[in-house]
């Protein structure tokens, strides 16, 4: 439920203090690791069901990771009730906020909490990839379980808990500013602070443990150069390089030119090229001589290899051989002399203009 309020055209010092308190309250929930507070989490689940007007679940099942929980949920045939549970908490009148202070509130509360969204998105992609590339029977699922074609439905039914705190924090901020008067989503908040992902079903709930390890870079992005950036008690995890999910072989350095050509994501191809080195690229991948000391490696995303493009616009990789090894230069240089002059002026290797991470 929401209430009509006067337009909030400017945030006062009091308003900013409220937003600061909310932000600090939630700031470290997304990167919390270690065993779940199971008693608190289960109490939060009961509260969430009650606030949504649903009977409390008869049984609660725990899993060690989102992957294990997804498999557990696939064995259940109960209806998912996440839509009803997430509807609790209310939202303000959007018309007023979109025209006034929505972006100011979001910048102070939601933006600092985006680490959770990044982690949650990567984990969902990892689960989806595993469930759609692994034989269903190898996961130990009976024939009556959900099929791989229903993986999206399984994922959409998850409440991401600690990786969805930006939404909960925004609701709390709106309430603190007097923009909504609906009862707070206390149950959802309690679970988010106590456990990982969870799936609310009619009559049952499946909850997950939190990660045992989480590695971030100085910018707050998931990143680990020597292993999974996020790892759960059962070993499930995701490898990440500066905020981009990558296959394990990219981190271990056991990459072949064939794998580079077959990689469908442009940002991952760029990561491999930079991580393995441009001499590796020249040695492993077909190249075209463009002139003395000047080579072109055709990016699969812009060639006839049939690899789909990602959000990084594919660019052919032009490399100039120097005393310090191959250096990347813009694809529009005319010859080796122009390439060397560009490197002298820039002082660093060329990188595509679109952010890759």
Structure description:
- The protein is 40% helix and 12% strand.
- It has helices at residues 13-26, 38-51, 66-75, 82-86, 94-99, 102-109, 114-133, 151-156, 165-176, 186-194, 248-252, 257-262, 266-276, 278-284, 336-346; strands spanning 59-63, 198-201, 204-208, 213-214, 230-231, 237-238, 240-241, 244-245, 288-291, 294-297, 317-322, 325-329.
- The strands form four sheets. A four-stranded antiparallel sheet has the order 9-10-11-12, sandwiched between helices. A three-stranded mixed sheet has the order 1-3-2.
- Helix 1 (13-26) runs antiparallel to helix 9 (165-176) and helix 2 runs antiparallel to helix 10.
- It is globular and about 75 Å long.
- It starts with 12 loop residues before the first helix and ends in an 11-residue tail after the last helix.
Please state roughly what percent of the residues sit in beta strands, choosing from under 5%, 5-15%, 15-25%, 25-35%, 35-45% or over 45%: 5-15%
Q: Total helix count?
A: 15
Helix content: 40-55%
Secondary structural class: alpha+beta
Give the biggest sheet: 4 strands, antiparallel
Q: What's the alpha carbon Rg, rounded to whole Å?
A: 24 Å
The coarse overall form would be: globular
Distance between the termini: 39 Å
What order do the strands of the largest sheet run in, or round the barrel if closed? Answer: 9-10-11-12
Note poorly predicted spans.
Answer: 303-312
The SSE string, one letter per element, is HHEHHHHHHHHEEEEEEEHHHHEEEEH
Overall pLDDT metric = 86
Total E-strand runs: 12
Short structural summary:
The protein has 357 residues and is of the alpha+beta class.
């Amino acid at each position: 439920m929401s209430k009509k309020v006067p337009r909030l055209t400017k945030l006062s010092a009091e308003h900013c203090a409220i937003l600061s308190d909310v932000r600090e309250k939630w700031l470290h929930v997304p990167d919390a690791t270690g065993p779940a507070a199971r008693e608190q989490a289960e109490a939060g689940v009961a509260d969430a069901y009650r606030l949504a007007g649903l009977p409390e679940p008869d049984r609660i099942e725990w899993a060690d990771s989102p992957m294990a929980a997804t498999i557990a949920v696939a064995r259940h045939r109960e209806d998912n009730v996440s839509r009803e549970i997430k509807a609790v908490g209310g939202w303000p009148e959007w018309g007023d906020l979109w025209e006034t202070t929505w972006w100011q509130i979001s910048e102070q509360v939601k933006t600092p909490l985006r680490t959770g969204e990044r982690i949650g998105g990567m984990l969902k992609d990892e689960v989806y990839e595993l469930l759609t590339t692994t034989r269903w029977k190898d996961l130990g699922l009976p024939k009556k379980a959900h099929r791989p074609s229903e993986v999206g439905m399984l994922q959409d039914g998850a409440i991401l808990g600690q990786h969805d705190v930006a939404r909960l924090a925004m609701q709390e901020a709106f309430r603190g500013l007097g923009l909504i008067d609906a009862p707070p989503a206390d149950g959802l908040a309690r679970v988010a602070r106590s456990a990982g992902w969870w799936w609310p079903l009619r009559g049952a709930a499946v909850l997950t443990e939190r990660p045992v390890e989480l590695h971030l870079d100085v910018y707050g992005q998931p990143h680990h150069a020597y292993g999974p950036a996020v790892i759960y008690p059962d070993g499930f995890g995701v490898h990440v390089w500066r905020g981009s999910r990558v296959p394990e072989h990219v981190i271990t350095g056991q990459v072949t030119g064939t794998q580079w050509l077959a990689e469908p994501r442009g940002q991952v191809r760029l990561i491999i090229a930079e991580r393995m080195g441009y001499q590796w690229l020249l040695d492993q991948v077909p190249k075209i001589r463009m002139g003395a000391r000047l080579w072109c490696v055709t990016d699969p995303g812009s060639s006839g290899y049939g690899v789909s493009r990602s959000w990084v616009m594919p660019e052919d990789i032009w490399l100039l051989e120097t005393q310090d090894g191959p250096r990347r230069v813009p694809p529009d240089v005319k010859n080796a002399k122009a390439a060397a002059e560009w490197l002298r002026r820039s002082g660093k290797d060329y990188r595509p203009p679109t952010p890759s991470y």
